[in-house]
Amino acid sequence: MNIHEYQAKAVIKEFGAPVSRGKAIFSPEEAEAAARELGGPLWVVKSQIHAGGRGKGKFKEASAGEKGGVRLAKSVEEVREFAQQMLGATLVTVQTGEAGKQVNRLYIEDGSDIEKEFYLSMLVDRETGRIAFVVSTEGGMDIEQVAHDTPEKILTFSVDPATGVMPHHGRRVAQALNLTGELARQAGKLVESLYAAFTAKDMSMLEINPLIVTTQGQLKCLDAKISFDSNALYRHPDVMELRDLTEEDAKEIEASKYDLAYIALDGTIGCMVNGAGLAMATLDIIKLYGEEPANFLDVGGGASEEKVTAAFKIITSDPTVKGILVNIFGGIMKCDVIARGVIAAVKTVGLQVPLVVRLEGTNVEEGKQIIRDSGLNVIPADDLDDAAQKIVKAVKEQG
Ligand code: ADP
Ligand code: MG
User: Fold this and answer.
1) What's the CA-to-centroid distance between 310 and ligand 2, angstroms?
2) Does 6 qualify as catalytic in the annotation?
């Protein structure tokens, strides 16, 4: 789960990381009030969307002006003007895709006098099973580009969970960033606070880009991006409250209500499968026969009829779906339950596209019979191969 920059800054601030003062706002009036409260003389008006590259991004609407999604303002009036322009407009960045994202909230922040911009991030390194730090003097820009062009400018190391973060980790970061004296001490403290925040909140990624040195000699986190481990969210109700549903796929939100493992994809064939392995195999075989899946959907081992109905509704509500493949191997899951769920769903939402159903396993005959008796226009299939070929053919025939 991802959160906005201003929320991420509040989280790391709790653990002692240095961030600027700022206020999240939803209207130009609030922007003006926030600017007065902060006092200036320099403010930054920052679009809050779940995507990076905002500074260099461009708004689709001409009325939003030529400047990007992060703007320096030199007066309260300018803060208000920028807020007026940016709120409601669609920002396109390298990370949003062409469609862009609508900006519904802004962060009004104290402007900093920047001397240097660095890069610092943390993530769970799956190879070592540890939390790793990635540090570079090349901040404020695309780190992938730095990794590609000048990999020697990036330092990576991981922290042994048995000892936790140690003073030598801080010294390594300071050294990599050429910081000495008071700034090196600040770097040590920062590394400690970020590690504490990362572990306490079960993060999977934390990125500070840029981490800056101000002309006053202070280290500061000028941007912050956090992803949390969704599997650990149950023990962080405070984090769960930071969720911004407008940033997420509506179908994925609906699926999470029913505890369905659902991920929207770019293709045309909607899939309903039980078990992650079978779901992956189903996506592969659809591709093998020349079409693309519209989603990954694992209804789980012991899904109820209600859950199956919900899953089917989510798939049919997607206008890009040109055909549906139900592929169930009944183990704990019973084929008759699946059949009833599918039929209940079709009765409420209708069926505009071809539907291929492949059932195998527990209560398979009962399941098939239920579908036959329903009078629905279902294309039955005997095995996975047959099912994939049939749905690809049906979708292609539609054109
Ligand atoms: P993004 O990474 O999405 O473009 P950032 O928060 O990194 O957004 O902002 C882009 C750039 O804007 C930063 O690299 C920095 O140069 C400048 N900037 C951001 N916040 C401030 C601030 N509070 N004071 C001064 N400059 C800022
Ligand atoms: Mg940034």
Assistant:
1) 38
2) no
**pLDDT for 177-223, tens place per residue?**
999 999 999 999 999 999 999 999 999 999 999 999 999 999 999 99
Distance (angstroms) between ligand 1 centre and the Cα of 19 equals: 12
Cα distance between residue 312 and residue 316, in whole Å: 6
Give the pLDDT confidence of 77-122 residue by residue, as tens digits.
Answer: 999 999 999 999 999 999 988 889 999 999 999 999 999 999 999 9
> How far is CA 174 from its chain centroid?
31
Q: At 233, which amino acid appears?
A: L
User: What whole-number distance in Å separates Cα of residue 226 and Cα of residue 206?
Assistant: 5
Architecture of the domain delimited by 250-398: 3-Layer(aba) Sandwich (3.40)
pTM here is: 0.80
Asked if 202 and 211 touch (Cβ cutoff 8 Å), the reply is no
- Rounded to the nearest angstrom, the distance between the alpha carbon of 372 and the centre of ligand 2 is 57
List the catalytic residue out of 195, 207, 258, 291.
Answer: 207
On whether the CB atoms of residues 204 and 226 are closer than 8 A, the answer is: no
- The structure tokens 């962060």 sit at 107
Ligand index nearest the alpha carbon of residue 140: 1
109 marked as part of a ligand binding site: yes
Predicted local confidence at residue 258, as pLDDT: 86
What topology does CATH give the domain 21-110?
Dna Ligase; domain 1 (3.30.1490)
